[in-house]
Specification:
The structure holds 2 protein chains of 2 kinds.
Chain A lengths: L2 H24 L16 E12 L15 E11 L3 E5 L6 H9 L1 H4 L3 E9 L2 E2 L15 H5 L3 E4 L12 H11 L4 H15 L14 H14 L4 E5 L7 H16 L3 E6 L10 E6 L2 E6 L6 H5 L5
Parallel strand pairs in A: 3-8, 3-9, 6-7, 7-8
Antiparallel strand pairs in A: 1-2, 1-4, 4-5, 9-10
Chain B lengths: L12 H17 L3 H17 L4 H25 L7 H13 L5 E5 L2 E5 H25 L3 H10 L4 H30 L9 H32 L18 H21 L3
Antiparallel strand pairs in B: 1-2
Helix pairs in contact in B: 1-5, 1-9, 2-5, 2-9, 3-5, 4-5, 6-7, 7-8
The chains are: A alpha/beta, B mainly alpha.
Chain lengths: 302, 270
């Protein structure tokens, strides 16, 4: 990706982000940050005593003899705004469930027993049966998408329009942005991820890395403050991974809060925090250079 | 629409939808063979003038031709003799060709197997099927994304427009899932070419379940992904592009259907 393209895209994304928040704040009943409440909130994501058990046979987390299959248990987490956090852990430790809780897929779409609370920019995600969420809570993944965007593990699953530009425009169109503003965001986001010359192409003609970049551009165009990545580098080659690292650093510079779920941790040494998970619990959350290497290289995976 | 598009491809989707709606409706309202032939000719002339992809149409017709032939044979044999005169039901052209009477063409003893009205009824059904296939080609001469915009600008709820577009988007996904399951079965030793018909049927039945499950899973993931990108987060939706009809589009929307309706009125004496 050319750096001048990226720079141009970055400044445009910063301004489009501001415009998006002005627009959404104008929607009194549905604004993502009400009355500037979220602006003073230091944490982008807060989880207090979060626990979850899948109601059906689907289990992503711990299974211990004689105990329910908790996917998450007693998760307390506060991720400051503008930071990069990487959630690391073995398969089935609850990483994906954690992302699902952050995006509202749990409890809106996937049902189960949910305890505790999740707040995005100071606003609680609604959906628990006990009604503790209150009327100011964010309801459902579609409303959450204005605050937090998820880049899925398989980019194919989140690309559904027939051209690159239409796919990037999908988010701003849902946000009811003005046509000129949508066009500006499409141009900015495509420049940012290095796809400005592919705007009218069919997304299925893009390479794996190209699709990944398109998926990121699609999420960026929705202008969320929080970006969540589910195992984003699994299908990328070395150059793709290097591009991804550069992209994440650029996003951090423009103030986005980033949470990445991955198995490979070495290449995320630039992250602010490494969060280690095992059996649905957070066992460590520290900067990379302060993370217990013994735990990271041995105990965590056993 | 693509900047370099020509012919039917540079036409707004709405005239194309109007053409398809008009011809499909009119061909269901009458059994007049002269009108059905005229409508089919009008479609071919439109496709030729609009520089349509005839190779694609030929491929599509080849597949459907077997169906049309089968229907023609079945309808010809099993249709009951007409209760009205041929001129009244199928129009003057049909009456002139057949001599105006419903005569048995093939009969064994006292049992009439094939008669004139049966052949005419089968011809009507075959012509209607051809008209649907050929008029669909007019609509296919365009971008799927333009149709979604056209539907929303025609005040159709955007959720419905999305359903149509997603339905079209799903056809290649369905094919991909079928191919995945097919290749997986081949890798496990199933030889689709050399198997007996019974074994082949069993193997194809085995394809259906993984294909169905895979498609449902993809549909589920896609609906979650759409919500995660803010679909229905706001009371409405805006669009980056807007379709505008120029004078050619307006003329095509009005003149083509009006001309066809006029031909319909004349040939069916209405």
């Amino acid at each position: 990706m050319k750096s001048d393209q990226m720079d141009g895209g970055r400044s445009a994304i910063e301004s489009s982000s501001r415009r998006a928040h002005e627009n959404t704040n104008n929607e009194a009943s549905r604004s993502q940050v009400s009355d500037g409440e979220g602006a003073s909130e230091p944490f982008a994501i807060e989880m207090n005593g979060l626990g979850f058990t899948y109601s059906s046979g689907e289990s992503e987390g711990s299974t211990r003899a004689g105990q329910p299959a908790f996917s998450l248990r007693g998760v307390n987490l506060a991720i400051p705004k503008g930071t990069v956090s990487v959630v690391i852990g073995p398969s089935g430790c609850g990483k994906t469930t954690l992302l699902r809780c952050m995006t509202g897929i749990i409890p809106s779409i996937i049902k189960g027993s949910l305890f505790g609370s999740v707040k995005l920019n100071g606003r609680e995600i609604a959906g628990r049966g006990n009604g503790e969420s209150g009327s100011s809570a964010i309801a459902g993944p579609n409303e959450i998408s204005l605050t937090a965007g998820l880049v899925m593990q398989e980019p194919d699953h989140q690309i559904f329009m027939t051209t690159v530009e239409d796919d990037i425009a999908f988010g701003p169109e849902n946000r009811m942005a003005a046509p000129g503003e949508i066009r500006a965001e499409v141009n900015a986001c495509s420049r940012f991820v290095g796809l400005p010359s592919r705007l009218t192409d069919d997304p299925s003609t893009l390479s794996g890395g190209g699709k990944q970049r398109l998926a990121i551009a699609g999420i960026l165009a929705s202008a969320p403050d929080i970006l969540l990545f589910d195992e984003p580098v699994g299908g990328l080659d070395d150059s793709g991974r290097a591009m991804f690292a550069t992209l994440i650093c650029e996003l951090k510079e423009i103030g986005k809060t980033i949470v990445i779920v991955e198995h490979d941790y070495e290449e995320f040494s630039y992250a602010d925090v490494w969060i280690l998970m095992k059996h649905g619990e957070i066992i460590s959350a520290a900067p990379p250079n302060e993370t217990d290497r013994g735990l990271l290289e041995g105990e965590l995976w056993r | 629409m693509n900047a370099g598009a020509r012919g039917l491809r540079c036409l707004d989707p709405r005239p194309k939808l109007a053409m398809m709606a008009t011809v499909s409706t009119l061909c269901l309202l009458t059994e007049n063979i002269a009108f059905l032939l005229a409508a089919l000719c009008a479609l071919f002339v439109t496709l030729a003038a609009g520089r349509a992809d005839f190779a694609l149409l030929r491929r599509r017709c080849r597949t459907i031709f077997i169906l049309i032939i089968s229907l023609f044979v079945i309808q010809s044999i099993f249709a009951a003799p007409a209760s009205k005169s041929i001129a009244e039901t199928y129009g003057g052209l049909a009456a002139a060709i057949t001599g105006g009477s419903d005569t048995p063409l093939i009969h064994i003893g006292g049992l009439s197997l094939l008669h004139t009205s049966g052949v005419l009824l089968a011809s009507v059904l075959a012509l209607r099927l051809l008209i649907v296939v050929v008029s669909a080609q007019i609509v296919l001469e365009g971008e799927v994304r333009d149709y979604m915009l056209a539907f929303t600008q025609m005040k159709l709820p955007y959720e419905l427009a999305f359903m149509v577009v997603m339905g079209l988007h799903f056809l290649p996904i369905l094919r991909e899932e079928a191919l995945n399951a097919y290749h997986c079965m081949q890798l496990r030793g199933v030889d689709f070419k050399k198997s007996s018909p019974a074994a082949k049927t069993k193997a194809y039945a085995g394809l259906c379940l993984p294909m169905l499950v895979g498609t449902l899973r993809r549909a589920d993931e896609m609906s979650v992904a759409m919500e995660l990108r803010g679909l229905r987060a706001m009371p409405g939706r805006t669009y980056m592009r807007r379709l505008t009809m120029n004078s050619v589009d307006i003329a095509a929307t009005l003149i083509w259907p009006a001309a066809l309706v006029a031909v319909f009125m004349i040939l069916t004496n209405r």
